[in-house]
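REQUEST
  id: r-88c1
  op: predict_structure
  target: Protease Do-like PDZ domain-containing protein
  payload:
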Amino acid sequence: MGDTKRKRGRKPKNPTPSQALQSPPSSPSDDVFSLSNIEIIPSTSSAVEITTTASRPRGRPKKLPKHPDNPDPLPPPPILSPCRHVSNGTAIGVGGGSGGGELAVDPIGARVVPAMDAVVKVFCVHTEPNFSLPWQRKRQYSSSSSGFVISGRRVLTNAHSVEHYTQVKVKKRGSDTKYLATVLSIGTECDIAMLTVNDDEFWEGVSPVEFGELPALQDAVTVVGYPIGGDTISVTSGVVSRIEILSYVHGSTELLGLQIDAAINSGNSGGPAFNDKGNCVGIAFQSLKHEDAENIGYVIPTPVIQHFIQDYEKNEAYTGFPILGIEWQKMENPDLRKAMGMKPEQKGVRIRRVDPTAPESGVLKSSDIVLSFDGVDIANDGTVPFRHGERIGFSYLVSQKYAGDSSAIKVLRNSEILNFNIKLTSHRRLIPAHNKGRPPSYYIIAGFVFTTVSVPYLRSEYGKDYEYEAPVKLLDKLLHSMLQSPDEQLVVVSQVLVSDINIGYEDIVNTQVLALNGKPVKNLRRLAEMVESCDDEFLKFDLEYEQIVVLRTKTAKAATPDILATHCIPSAMSVDLKA
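RESPONSE
  id: r-88c1
  status: 200
  body:
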């Protein structure tokens, strides 16, 4: 009964783990790796509080065990110094010598310790646009993340760490000074941002990080950064678990990525991943959060990092990663290959659709079989040889190119082999994944708020589960629609600001505008121009789901200023539409 006797008093409350990085659980095991489960490692928000005092249970305190009269002397406390332990148990100091960023070498195992002095903490103040009320901005908030110094007096971090930035500051390891930083370039697709600091004092005693080659499977990696849980630098170790084409959540694109089993937490964003030689092999940027998965983190590898850096150095701006503007189908079925006129030794993928706005639309056609890209043969499952014992999606070959580069493509059309030289361009979508830091566009007439649809807009309207909550029509266009012209936009009625002139239309929300007075609406600027120059008696808007909105032109234009004043809206259209 002594062991089963229940204590009097309330049980101590256990702190519940934060759900900020958790995704909705998925019951089937096959759905563990899905885009909804992959989360960007968020920057550590300044609003996070760490409670250091645990709740004390009420009731009689526990009895402490008695100590012997002559206890054994305790070992001396360890000396706290920046070091890491290697496999043979030897502790190696970091940053020894006159240079702050020098590498220390283990004399026994000849193992190099990363130059952690080049790792900095990045502080950012964000002011996000309000996509639901596009004439406003949200309340500003601050965050912290990680970064590291590279050659040319530059600092690399993640793009989502400085998204919608108002002010960026960096702090060196062991310093109490925060230096103002300037954002040079933001690579949305690859989730990398480049900063610089104008103050010469910041660069004193700091040696830039050197990049290493793409690691192999089971290679050891060390992730360094400033994650949640403390203010000082943190080091976690692991190995490379997988190398493949990954979905980059922030950029909504697919590029080469590394999967590691080192712990990556909030605040690790932008921190470097070092190999055993002390060279940087990647940047920590996102992790997989699922009830059936543990310690799955993702790192941006050096080929993607070097592409971003060289793109900036070549063009003095970020131009993006090009794509082959096609949708393709696997050719693994033998009957399908025979029906398409393929010989037994031929392999490739079938083109389903070609982007009408892409340069390759002039030469490639639906049902063409892509046999090779730049001389590299493509398998029936869409993969190409990568390294010994490894294969990877052929989109990796495309991502190694730059916007404006040309590539040789061999296709099979009607049992005839054709060779084309195609100019590659960056990808544009009908519903863009980002506004690239620009505020949203809007136009208001008679209380009708017109705006364009983007992924941030859907997230603002329907939350992080917009892929399940948004209207089916919009989701279908998000996933499957292609641009028919370079300036095409998806224009919707975001909401209706209630007024006497729009009685009966109050329930129209997020519905696409198809035409005005019989003329198709290609983009928001065109819609604003047609309304402003309309001399007809009525404004007739054709909407999705066969809805129509009819307003008297003169009355609608006359009522707009009063509606704007009522809702404290500064202008009837955004600044970009006035230009």
